[in-house]
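Reposting from the mailing list since nobody answered there.

I have sequence plus structure tokens for a pair of proteins and want to know whether others read the tokens the same way I do. The first protein:
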Amino acid sequence: MEDDFVSREKKILSILEQEIEDGEEMTAAVRKIAEQMLLGEKGYLPGDIRKNVVFDVVLGSETVKSSVDFLISVDGMISMVIKCAAGSLNSRERHVVAAARVLGDYQIPVAVVMDPMNAVVLDGVTGKMTGEGFETIPKKDQIRRMLSGISLVPLPPEKAEREKRVLLAFDAIRCCIPQGADGGVPLGGVSKE
């Protein structure tokens, strides 16, 4: 009886490991698509794009790592955050909005989650969807115009802890936050508290 249990457990673990590996490969493919799109049709320059950004999230007395796939700056202002996923974008919308709200000194105005087939663009402050589809990801000149008409505001302190918890809950579900020299590029220069 115990041998059957161990055998089933090994099979289940093998299936889970394969699914995680497949998801990581698909997410890597989405990152390639996103980068090509940003540099090509969206008009961003390599210096506007920071990839695989790892940042600290301070919650109480603990500091935990989180990450985003891309941070996009226009005229020196971080204006868009992108998270790539293997699928199920609607389940990741709240994740990217939480990242946009807690990543820096101000709430990043545009939050995007994308998979190989689609993208969802959200307002980083309100969390409301502003577009769906790759064509709705803002071009550099659109971001520049948008930035000239808005104030970049910090997250109210009473909301910060909740947003950090949301972010870290999604990170825990994902189970693979890149860390260190091999897995990510530290944020650097942007306050995380």
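The second protein, same order (residues first, tokens after):
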Amino acid sequence: MDKLDPELKTYYLQVKDEVKKEHTTYINKHPEIRQLLNDFLSTVLLEKPDDVYAYAQEYFSYFNTEKEPEQYKPLVLSGPPGVGKVTISC
């Protein structure tokens, strides 16, 4: 950051402070997130995983509400006319 010109450095520090204030305000409005982060950090410090990113992905996967799309195998109905293919597929 020492290589930045003074104007850019000032802008960077200003944006950094604004983002920090926004995050602090959000955390203060949502104490459940603060508790969740505290639990996660405590667990990381206790278990000391080698790969913190992989550990975080596994730790927070419980909260992932998006389900994997179900993969259906195709079913092909074949037969001569009049055996009921349309009736079965409806």
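Reply #1 (J.P.):
I read it the same way you do. The radius of gyration is 27 Å.
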